[in-house]
Amino acid sequence: MAGTLQFRDHDGAQEAIRKQLHTTIFSQAFSPGGKYLAVGTSFGEIAVFNISASLSRNSNEEDMKPTFLFKATDGPIYCLTTTDKFLISAGTGDVIAWNWVDVLRKTPKVAWSLPIPTNRYGLSNPEVNSLAIESKDGGKRLFAGCGDNNTYIWDLESGSLVQTLAGHTDYVHSVALKSLSDQCVTGSEDGTVRLWDLRTPQEPVAVIEPYSEVTCARSEYGRWIGCVAVDPTDDWLVCGGGPKLSLWHLRTFAVTTVFDTPGACQQYTSFFEDTIISAGSEPYVNHWYINGDRRSRVPCTPTSVCNVTINSEAENNKVLSVVGSSAKVDLCTNFGYKALSLTVC
Amino acid sequence: MAASTASGSDFEKQRQTCLKFIEKHHNSTDLNGLRDEYQTLPGSESERKLALDQAFRDAVHKQVQSGGDINILTSLINLAVEAVRQELGSHSTPFLLLQDTFDGLELEKCSSLFKFVEDGVATWKSDIFYSAGKNYLLRMCNDLLRRLSKSLDTVFCGRIQLFLARLFPLEEKSGVNLTSQFNLDNVTTFSSSAEDFVRKSSETDGEKDDSMEIEEGEMEDTLSSSIPIDYNLYRRFWSLQDNFRNPQQCYEKIAWKQFVVNADEVLKVFTSNKLDDIKSSRKNLEQPKQSDTHEYFAKYLTNEKLLDLQMSDGNFRRYVLVQFLILFQYLNSTVKFKSANQVLSEEQSNWVRESTDKVLQLLRETPPDGEQFAKYFEHLLAREENWNAWKNEGCPSYVREATENTAKQKSLRVRKRSLGEDIKATGGKVVKMGNDELTRLWNIYPSNMEACKSDKRIFLPSLEDFFEEAILQADPEQQIEEQYKLVSQSNFCWRSLRLLARRSPHFFAQTNQQPGALKISKFVESMVMRIAKEMPSTLQEEPKTELEEEEDIREEHQEEELDKAEETGKEEAVEVVTADQVATVAEELSQEWKRLAVELNFPEDDIAYIESDNEDTVSQALKMLTLWMENEAERATPGTLKIALKEVGLIDIANKVFPS
């Protein structure tokens, strides 16, 4: 009896280690107020960390573990985003919203969910690769870049599908919104970056093909565009993936700067203050100057980085969080180095 | 006892009189008045001295009590110094006065009075005062330092320290940390106390419970700190300071392990968190002066909220990296006062070596001017080794006694002469340059200045010579067509312009024509005309009739013939040395030819050249004489040769070859 019990325990420990080794964290979102961090794993779990506790003076091992972990979906959670009330997760299956209050009470309930429209044969079950929230004029819209090559836009007040941006010939990796105009940008596996005007959603305003640009093309890594971001002035776009990370001027659609990362494809990029942050298939987070010089290259735990998010909600918890192919979440207080690692399991 | 009281009253009297003298004389710089009056005092020499010393102290005492006018005090002390120099007072008096003054004055005045002490370093260091005063001065300075606040009066403290450094020699025992002890009082405190933790933890526990109210939780948090703090790093970072404070700890096993972990962590953070090199260099372009302002802090601020700023501060990083290097050097170096068990193990020294490389690399990367700073610091550490060795030898004096041995060596050493001196010393004699051709060239002229001035080196033709033909052509009577004139040749024009620029004032005279409007040939022609006008009238003869010209020609012809006749006559009259005579002279001369050559004004290098060009002396002599004949032409008469031979004392040869 004792033997079997021991064996079973042993098995459990083994499984935990194996799970830890196989965990990839695809997505993350900070809570409103910036005190908590939610991450979505490849096992369909959402883990919530109390960052205030982890960063506190007397933090211990326990504070590096999630305060709460729950199974959200069956498939992996590719993207997480947040409104002031809801934590929205998506991946395979529907887009699901969780009330933050419920999550923090450790009683998560699906507040509402949005099904991805099926194609006319009713056969597709596309995944959501990228979520973006736009809150303007009181109304909120949710953008989802999906595996069926389309980008869907919902009005969150009514919960109805407003628009569908179709045109990419392969799945959409990344969606970025322009902050001043009614436009958005999508990057896709087909190698193009498309700029859409939501007043004329039938076809894109412009199509950028970084793979055909000599300065940033890298045929050995393919054409795909893994990440796009638009700066707050709406004048600049940065994108990367198979081609090198490159900065484009949105009025002239010309490349101005190329940020070279030999041997690595960028999967995440964003503008932060006067720098560009990018990360990808190497255990580093790059900080760039707009002129193309690398400001720093900060080592991190995951060997491939999926997402980098800066907690802009609260100044006292203003950290840069890095997730990727590891069960660890790296927090950087000073963005120049990794301060500590949180563990999902 | 009775005697002493009796002399005591005398002393009192003397003291009073001295005081009066001093008060009378403290304004005058010369001491004669005081000395004269001092001589009038009764009592023995030592009694008088004592009285004067005491009087000085009284005078200073009075001044200090009445407010302490710095000027009067300094003049009093100066007077005392002078008195000691004149053997009137005892050596220690000025120091006692200084001590009294500093004891009695408030710090502000001390500071201005200290200026006087600083200026007097030379005086205090002089033989009369040094041995008597050094202890007084040291005590006085230490007293002052004790009174001063270390954090507020940093400048004054520094001045005192500098003064001491100037006053005492390097090996002065009071200034050297002989036993290599560390300043263990320099504790860097940082907040890691347990109570602090407890208080905080209860706070955060409370927050956890009402975490539903998100906004409220946030409010509470902002009270504790406004930015996220990496406490892990904070603790590791500041606990390093303890190892820097007391490096001996590193030889203990547990402390060492902790140190290695902390150091590795901190260095990793430094490596990862690159500082803005580009940004700072950009800034410097705009504000080049900015890097000149160096800030220096004697102590670190350890507030946890500052950590983030400190991590991105280049200067701060430099301090810490330098601390690392200093510690590493200490750990590796042999210090006399280390105990036997204070040695690094193989593994430890490997780690130290690796970390040293890492730290140096980081220093190089740390802006501004990291490369240079690292280089300087490496150099500094290398010098530190020397100081360490010096200390290990027990701090011997740095003034090296001149031993007799070295003095002897000095005198034996032959003074090395420079080449220039060599040439001057020979006074124009041949200087061997080590190579025949060089020797010849070097000796063409003994003096370079004269060589340059020689007529041979004037290459400019005179205006008259150069333009003679052109002037003739310019004469319209010559009827030379324009195109055949010299002035229409561009080559000639160019050369004339150059010559005019050097020789003619007209070239720079202003013309009313636009520059460049005139064709060069026309310009040159006009210049030619001007020069012609200026020239002496030789060419401005009256135009002659053809007849006259014919006559002229005839006359000239006759003149020429006459000249010819004269010349031939001269030639016949003048006797020139014949080749036979030269040959015989040469044979007779053989060895002596050089002396004759000198007499015949052959330059040294020619002689050397002749010598090297011909093998035996006879042919050398012959060559020399032939050259002489060629040079002198008709002046090479037997007479001159005879005189020359006589001058060098070879009268026999002269008589033999030229029998009169």
UniProtKB/TrEMBL annotation, chain A:
Gene3D superfamilies according to UniProt: YVTN repeat-like/Quinoprotein amine dehydrogenase (2.130.10.10)
Keyword Membrane on entry: no
Signal peptide segment: none
Transmembrane segments: none
GO BP, one annotated term: mRNA export from nucleus
WD repeat coordinates: 139-164, 165-206
Pfam families: WD40 (PF00400)
UniProt entry keywords in alphabetical sequence: Repeat, WD repeat
One Gene Ontology term, aspect cellular component: transcription export complex
SMART domains: WD40
Family membership noted in the UniProt record: Belongs to the WD repeat THOC6 family.
Record protein name field: THO complex subunit 6 homolog
Species of provenance: Lingula anatina (Brachiopod)
Automatic annotation (TrEMBL), chain B:
Residue ranges of the region described as Disordered: 536-571
Domain Death: 578-660
Entry's Gene Ontology BP terms: mRNA export from nucleus; signal transduction
A GO CC annotation given for this chain: THO complex part of transcription export complex
Transmembrane segment boundaries: none
A Pfam family recorded for this sequence: Death
Record's compositionally biased regions (Acidic residues): 547-564
Annotated InterPro entries: DEATH-like_dom_sf, Death_dom, THO_THOC1
SMART domains: DEATH (SM00005)
Protein name in the entry: THO complex subunit 1
UniProt source species: Lingula anatina
